[in-house]
């Protein structure tokens, strides 16, 4: 079988975890977890959905973008080129999959209909950008980050790529767009978040309250609040641009390391915790956590995304894709 289903029992999670700072642990209820096998040795990580509901994931180690059919677990790999090492992927308004392709230091566009791959190389002054993630703004322009101190954009209408050095130095990592159209990125090495002005491409930096917290990824909720996974501090924080306020919560257990963050359609916040080898759901209203530990050690889920009733991630350490279904879809 290419996939395995696990229904989380009510008492299966809380027994091995201590009470977190700022919240209580709840056992996972009314949810089901399914694991799909990825290509062996692929280091499956960031993923996205195409218009047909197929899942495309980055094989950072085997240089592919691979299509997973959730109905039967079948895989369709597409090579992105010699030396490819894709990191992030997102569906574009043109129906194509757009990839931060660190191995070739380029943005890649893959046509799901034909498997054709187009590359948009970065300028020579950004030869080792260490490309990370990308997002489309409300005008259909693709914005991306590079951890070695770069951010940029590609206009799909013209194919023109622009890139700039990040004022805060190395670190740009996760990126998001708010319902109001604002573009924000998180800086892991810089321990801050920054807003990009799409008209001028200038940035404004905002510092979370915890010093050197390691802001890794960022995701907007439906109100335009920015949720940040803090790698060094093991916290999840939220910033409200309207009143410039911050709140933070420590993840459950000893030594949490918050990597990925995703906000679902209910404004529930999902994170991955390398310390607990788990995916964690945080309820902002009750300030409580629900933990979904992996059934294998070393899962290392580096990215989360989702669609109605579902959260998906790539277990880069186990070459698997994980899906959590909640609510009625469970």
TrEMBL record:
Its EC number is 4.2.99.-. Monomer. GO terms for biological process: antibiotic catabolic process; response to antibiotic. GO terms for cellular component: outer membrane-bounded periplasmic space. This is Virginiamycin B lyase. The keyword Transcription does not apply. Its cofactor is Mg(2+). InterPro entries: Vgb (IPR051344), Vgb_bact (IPR011217), WD40/YVTN_repeat-like_dom_sf (IPR015943). One of its GO terms (molecular function) is magnesium ion binding. Belongs to the Vgb family. Inactivates the type B streptogramin antibiotics by linearizing the lactone ring at the ester linkage, generating a free phenylglycine carboxylate and converting the threonyl moiety into 2-amino-butenoic acid. Gene3D superfamilies: YVTN repeat-like/Quinoprotein amine dehydrogenase (2.130.10.10). The lineage of its organism: Bacteria, Pseudomonadati, Pseudomonadota, Alphaproteobacteria, Sneathiellales. It is an enzyme of class 4 (lyase). It comes from Sneathiella chungangensis. It comes from the Bacteria. Pfam families: Vgb_lyase (PF24684).
């Amino acid at each position: 079988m290419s996939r395995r289903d696990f229904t989380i029992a009510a008492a299966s999670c809380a027994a091995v975890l201590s009470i977190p700072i700022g919240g209580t642990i709840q056992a996972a209820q009314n949810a089901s977890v399914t694991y799909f096998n990825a290509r062996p040795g692929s280091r499956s990580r960031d993923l996205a959905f195409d218009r047909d509901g197929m899942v495309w994931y980055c094989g950072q180690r085997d240089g592919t973008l691979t299509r997973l059919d959730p109905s039967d677990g079948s895989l369709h790999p597409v090579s992105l080129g010699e030396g490819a090492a894709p990191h992030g992927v997102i569906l574009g308004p043109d129906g194509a999959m757009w990839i931060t392709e660190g191995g070739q230091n380029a943005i890649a566009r893959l046509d799901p209909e034909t498997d054709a791959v187009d590359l948009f190389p970065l300028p020579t002054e950004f030869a080792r950008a260490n490309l990370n993630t990308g997002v489309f703004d409300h005008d259909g322009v693709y914005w991306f980050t590079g951890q070695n101190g770069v951010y940029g954009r590609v206009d799909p209408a013209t194919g023109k790529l622009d890139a700039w050095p990040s004022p805060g130095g190395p670190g740009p990592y996760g990126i998001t767009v708010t319902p109001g159209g604002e573009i924000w990125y998180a800086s892991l090495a810089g321990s801050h978040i920054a807003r990009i002005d799409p008209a001028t491409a200038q940035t404004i930096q905002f510092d979370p309250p915890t010093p050197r917290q390691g802001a890794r990824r960022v995701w907007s909720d439906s109100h335009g609040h920015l949720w940040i996974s803090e790698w060094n501090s093991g916290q999840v924080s939220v910033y409200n641009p309207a009143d410039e306020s911050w709140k933070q919560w420590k993840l459950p257990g000893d030594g949490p390391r918050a990597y990925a963050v995703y906000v679902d359609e209910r404004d529930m916040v999902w994170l991955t915790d390398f310390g607990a080898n788990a995916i964690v759901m945080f309820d902002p209203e009750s300030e409580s956590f629900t933990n979904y530990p992996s059934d294998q050690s070393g899962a290392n889920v580096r990215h989360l995304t989702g669609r109605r009733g579902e959260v998906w991630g790539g277990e880069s350490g186990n070459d698997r894709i994980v899906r959590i279904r909640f609510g009625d879809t469970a």
